[in-house]
Design goal:
With about 550 residues, the chain is α+β, with helices and mostly antiparallel strands. The chain is about 40% helix and about 20% strand.
């Protein structure tokens, strides 16, 4: 049986490429040459379809899974995320795990019922009677406001007249009692006006609520059906793993982290590729996902670049599906270099170290080893908060630690007020046009794909970076980056984003192309010593 979406390689040189020893760890990888060859062939094939060209130019994630079939032939499966050309089924691509577009399927049948409810709601809301009752309620409220305002004006004038008479000092007891009675009468009249109009408003509201009751009932029915349908759909998304086991997405997400699947779970490339490989009896060798077309607004995606699988939707699913395969270890969970931290400054109050690439700044979920742990081991005298700032695991360079609470507090204040000057050196995959400049692109987490960050001018937090080109050579640019704010992945996004430098940092798995290391190094740190008041200016040259 030939699996849907199965392609044999059209390059006779491909079979000579040695197969990988283990299958790809999908969340942090350098694509294997076989996967690169498959991606290139798939790109050529999709570009033969002019009817897809406009949509693909808008941006689409494509994926390949290299495998051997039952006859030992080398080939690959192809997939696209979501929909393409308005469908989830196209010749040459793997089918969906569950076909949401099947007109006879449970999803479409229930969706048709929900659509009919929507039409009923629209018709009821367009009823002229409803519009008349809404106007009646608005008119009753307006009349109440006008009547109360008019009476309060009368009360204010009467009070002013009474105050004037009293100030003359010529009132006898009967006249004073008359003024009091007038005041009491006006206040009583105000209460009567309020009660009268409140009753009219209540009556108008009752009529409107009664008229809207069928609409509200239909909306509750629609919400109940939609929630049940969403849960039902995820129970219909049943995936397999290499052990021959099966599980639906509801159970997978609940067992993984006790949550329900997010929208779109199961429709990405990686789960679809693995599902078809297991169904077709293929031997998976490696896989890769790559972006075709322009970058989406706010996100960083470059045409032809390879990207890891998303975490919010795919991590629980792939954690199940990869069971039974011999998979590459997670590089981010690999132990850091077994060597002491290099200290370039140390005194009784603080220490500055050079953190190597691959070492966490502080202990993480997967690794306890970190720069902080090694610092505390070598400096048992340090107390209180010590971490002044952090560097990404893949970033090397200068890291500042405090040894006591007071020093930490002063340094944190300097950091918050931008009094600490930081300079990074990076090598970018691309030539930067201007020699100097400032990037101001607000950032926020990509909630669907943490830890990725995205540009968001509305909800993002201010993120500002100055840059200076140091050298251009053969399509690469060496730059000095000075972050004026300290947002997560700020330099990486500002370098890669089309509105930034449009040139990802070399080796950036999340925003560019993976390599041996991320070419980003915290090279210079300048600050005022919290105790001596002396300016400390430190530098550690980049190791690349």
């Amino acid at each position: 049986m030939t699996a849907e979406g199965w392609h044999l390689f059209d390059d006779n040189k491909v079979p000579s490429i040695a197969a990988p020893r283990r299958f790809t760890f999908p969340f942090h990888y350098v694509p294997h040459p076989l996967a690169v060859a498959a991606a290139r062939q798939l790109t050529r094939e999709v570009e033969r379809h002019s009817e897809w060209a406009a949509e693909l130019r808008q941006g689409k994630m494509l994926g390949v899974l290299v495998a051997r079939d039952g006859d030992g032939r080398l080939g690959f499966l192809a997939a696209f995320s979501g929909l393409l050309a308005g469908t989830n089924r196209l010749p040459g691509f793997v089918p969906p795990i569950y076909d949401l577009l099947d007109p006879d399927g449970e999803f479409k049948r229930t969706e048709a019922v929900i659509s009919s409810i929507n039409r009923k709601i629209d018709a009821l809301e367009a009823d002229p009677v409803l519009a008349r009752l809404q106007q009646q309620l608005a008119g009753a409220r307006l009349k109440a406001d006008e009547a109360l305002a008019a009476h309060r004006t009368i009360m204010a004038r009467a009070k002013a007249e009474r105050d004037s008479q009293r100030q003359n000092g010529t009132l006898n007891d009967d006249e004073e009692k008359s003024l009091v009675r007038e005041s009491q009468h006006l206040r009583a009249e105000l209460r009567r006006i309020k009660q009268h109009h409140a009753a009219a408003i209540v009556e108008a509201e009752k009529q409107l609520v009664a008229a809207r009751q069928p609409i509200d009932d239909l909306r509750r029915q629609r919400r109940t059906m939609s929630e049940a349908l969403q849960e039902r759909v995820f129970s219909l998304f049943t995936v397999r793993n290499a052990r021959g086991q099966q599980a639906d997405l509801l159970h997978i997400f609940n067992d993984y982290n006790g949550t329900v699947p997010p929208g779109g779970a199961g429709e990405c490339c990686a789960p679809k590729l693995l599902q078809q490989a297991f169904i077709g009896g293929l031997q998976p060798l490696c896989m890769a996902e790559f972006w075709y077309g322009r970058s989406p607004d706010g996100q960083v995606r470059h045409h032809g670049h390879y990207y890891p699988a998303c975490r919010s939707k795919c991590l629980p699913i792939l954690s199940f599906m990869l069971q039974g395969l011999d998979v590459d270890p997670n590089p981010l969970a690999s132990p850091a270099p077994d060597s002491p931290l290099t200290e370039i400054y140390d005194d009784p109050w603080l220490t500055v170290v050079v953190k190597p690439a691959g070492m966490l700044s502080v202990p993480g979920k997967l690794l306890d080893d970190s720069a902080l742990k090694r610092f505390t081991q070598s400096h048992p005298e340090a107390t209180g908060p010590m971490v002044v700032h952090r560097l990404d695991q893949e970033t090397s360079g200068l890291l500042l630690f405090a040894k006591d609470k007071h020093t930490h507090k002063v340094l944190q204040r300097q950091w918050a007020t931008r009094a600490i000057d930081k300079h990074y050196v990076a090598v970018l995959a691309g030539e930067v046009e201007h020699d100097t400049g400032t990037i101001n692109l607000p950032l926020r987490p990509d909630v669907d794909d943490r830890p990725r960050q995205m540009v968001d001018p509305i909800d993002g937090r201010e993120a500002v970076t100055r840059y200076r080109v140091l050298q251009r050579s053969a399509g690469r640019t060496r730059v000095d980056l000075q972050p004026l704010t300290g947002r997560t992945h700020q330099l990486r996004v500002h370098a890669a984003h089309p509105q930034g430098l449009n040139a990802p940092i070399e080796g950036d798995m999340l925003y560019g192309t993976a390599a041996q290391r991320l070419m980003l190094h915290a090279q210079r740190l300048t600050f005022t010593h919290p105790v001596t008041g002396r300016v400390i200016d430190l530098e550690a040259k980049a190791p690349f």
